[in-house]
Design goal:
This protein is of the alpha+beta class. It has a single domain (3-217), classed as Peptide methionine sulphoxide reductase MsrA (Peptide Methionine Sulfoxide Reductase, Chain A, 2-Layer Sandwich). It has helices at residues 3-17, 58-65, 88-91, 113-124, 150-166, 193-196, 201-217; strands spanning 49-55, 71-79, 99-106, 132-133, 136-137, 143-147, 176-179, 183-185. The strands form 2 sheets. Strands 7-6-1-3-2-8 form a 6-stranded mixed β-sheet, covered by helices on one side. Strands 4-5 form a two-stranded antiparallel ribbon. A hairpin with a 2-residue loop joins strand 4 (132-133) and strand 5. Helix 4 crosses helix 5 (150-166).
Length: 225
């Protein structure tokens, strides 16, 4: 049985016996997070910059950022391990060092890196869950910000500290802030998965609500895909 089938099977059991609640910033669902106190300035000219984050199954993270104004593209993939193990069956063992990640290419004249992180922590995942996210468990589902330069590191670390200091979350944030070594795009069947399979029970119960929360909490940043 493939890991994809196992994931759906686990979901059905979770729905039947326990119910499923889509994450939205952990145990403080619906409470807006403050904007980052430390952030990059809006660029005066259009260009492209890249952010890479991980927080559970990449289907939902990709779906959220595909609906954010200023985001040019969002690609599901793997970060944290080697090129030799950057494929789904290997990553699903939880032994490769990879996390299911999303590469976000954005226009810094429309949205800042800090605002992307605000969305990441607010609606895309629960940053207080260690090595898991909803029904998915394993190090491949850990919460990570993969920074590519010193400015991204500074903004990410400052924002995590800001949120922890504000005690908005019931539990401590476990998000790792580590340097990006490489990003490897996932297989074609994983790309745009939520958009192509809106009736998949996993998407309905875990990922579609994240996009709804994005529209509700960030109406000025929401766009139809």
């Amino acid at each position: 049985m493939s890991h994809l089938v196992v994931r759906v099977a686990v979901l059905f059991l979770t729905i039947r016996f326990a119910g499923v609640t889509a994450c939205s910033a952990g145990e403080r669902t619906g409470v807006p997070l403050p904007a980052p106190a430390v952030d990059a300035a809006i660029a005066s000219a259009k260009g492209e910059q890249t952010a890479v984050v991980a927080g559970g199954c990449f289907w939902g993270i990709q779906a959220v950022f595909q609906h954010v104004k200023g985001v040019i593209s969002a690609t599901s993939g793997y970060s944290g391990g080697s090129a030799q193990t950057a494929e789904y069956e290997s990553v699903s063992t939880g032994e490769t060092g990879h996390a299911e990640s999303v590469r976000i290419v954005y226009d810094p004249s429309q949205i800042t890196y800090g605002r992307l992180l605000q969305i990441f922590f607010s609606v895309a995942h629960d940053p207080t869950q260690l090595n898991r996210q909803g029904p998915d468990e394993g190090t491949q589902y850990r919460s990570v910000i993969f920074y590519s330069n010193d400015e991204q590191k500074r903004i990410a670390e400052a924002y995590v500290a800001q949120l922890d200091h504000a005690e908005i979350f019931v539990h401590h944030i476990v998000t790792q802030v580590v340097r990006l070594k490489a990003f490897y795009p996932a297989e074609a069947y994983h790309q745009d998965y939520a958009a192509r399979h809106p009736d998949n029970p996993y998407i309905v119960y875990n990922d579609a609500p994240k996009v709804t929360h994005l529209r509700q909490q960030f109406p000025d940043l929401y766009k139809d895909k």
